[in-house]
Amino acid sequence: MIGIKMKTTAMMISLLVISGCSSNNSKPDEEMDHSTINKDMEEIDQNTTENGHRSHDEMVSLNDSTGENELEIPAMLERDNEKGIVYTVRAQKGKTEIFDGTETKTYGYNGAFLGPVLRLEKGDMVKIRTINELEENTTFHWHGLEVSADADGGPHNTLKPGEEKVIEFKVAQEASTLWFHPHPEGITAEQVYNGLAGLIYIEDDNSKNLGLPNDYGKNDIPLIFQDRNFDDKKQLNYNAAMNDDGTIGDTLLINGTLNPKLTVNKEKVRLRLLNGSNARNYTFKLNTGDSFVQISTDGGFLNEPVTLKEITLTPSERAEIVVDFSQLNTANDLALINEDESILLPFEVSDQSGEINKIPGEMNNFSITEEEKDLPVTKKVELFGMKDQVTINGKKFDPERIDFTQQQGVTEVWEIYNKPDMMGGMIHPFHIHGTQFKILSRDGEEPPENERGWKDSISIQPGERVKIAIQFKHKGVYMFHCHILEHEDNGMMGQLKVE
């Protein structure tokens, strides 16, 4: 269906290194001795050629989507007929026909692969029954959701096989696109790789009144991007594919669909982008060079739409964009592509005109106050290392150690520094559980316009220092970590206690 030339050469890019978070008790930067780690990394770098990583410089390219399969749209999860708003979410094993005629062993929520969408509304009192039907421990982490620590689904909230737990919370945050996935200590990467991931939509009065495209599956499309490797039996063999520095695949699945295409009408279409990969970054753009509009960050709407020609998302980041297919030249092949021009998602534009939606000039009242700008840095986080030598503030995760404390309802400023290694370093996507935060600055400069909104994950370049203003609404112990999942599993994670 697509006449775009298929690409066979691997793209050369600079790998990213996640720099860690520092604790109140950690040594300052100038006192920290990384000489042993640097030596180890130099030896690893000289000797390593595996699974798409070589000399910290080369990453395997994605195969182009041929566009032969219509994109699967996740189902909306039906609510249970019980008192309160009740959902049941089951972690399950299954088999999925990703390739025609072959069943691949997969994990999923309420099904064989991936999960349904949970739709919540601001002000709702919600109950979710979580059930572990796997043969191993798991957790249910609600990524981006502001909930108490005992409901957050971090590694302390483990469910053994056959166990279940009901969590309850009030939805107190604004309209946004969040997601859920497992977070058990040491095996998060493999469980996500096998298929445990789903989306959460929060709606509020503002989102309903903006007039944005909101016909689910028609002009409001969820897109979960995940790269995978399949073995010669077309199985997800994580042990064979796994790389300590982040598992990268050559095959892209979107919503679990191989070689997808999306059929749209000539109208504005809202695309909710989630980088659900273990380690790969994506720079999304249209192959025609046309622009689109970003309307939302991880945790809510931007104040006004931002016109872009490309947007980069690191693992776990989300963004909502609107593409106006009524204004694009559809005579030639049209597709969403990656930075190296890999074809991610071909579009087939019908002759039918769709709804007439206007993107409002004002969508939110997000602000950074003068008081927040004047706050001193109270917590420093240093991300450092690669492979199994990753640390935050020179330390690996210890479930018995609290790295930071913070008072409930009090805003503090954290500084996150990605310390380069002798090969330059990697980008680290840094995530904090249980809250949304504001980016105050990147290397002392204001963040770009499309990052001036609520965030729960942030991309940090080697050598970069980022300041954020952060407040927690609930008490308990929360995680902060690199969202390259193999780095997280290797101990690039810390704990914050909110008192």
Automatic annotation (TrEMBL):
Which keywords has UniProt assigned to this entry? Metal-binding, Oxidoreductase
Kindly give the Pfam families that the UniProt entry links to this protein.
Cu-oxidase, Cu-oxidase_2, Cu-oxidase_3
Matching InterPro entries, A to Z? Cu-oxidase-like_N, Cu-oxidase_2nd, Cu-oxidase_C, Cu-oxidase_fam, Cu_oxidase_CS, Cu_oxidase_Cu_BS, Cupredoxin
List where the protein spans the membrane. none
Superkingdom assignment: Bacteria
Q: Which residues form the Plastocyanin-like domain?
A: 92-206, 237-327, 375-498
The UniProt similarity line reads: Belongs to the multicopper oxidase family.
Q: What is this protein called?
A: FtsP/CotA-like multicopper oxidase with cupredoxin domain
What is the scientific name of the source organism? Rossellomorea pakistanensis
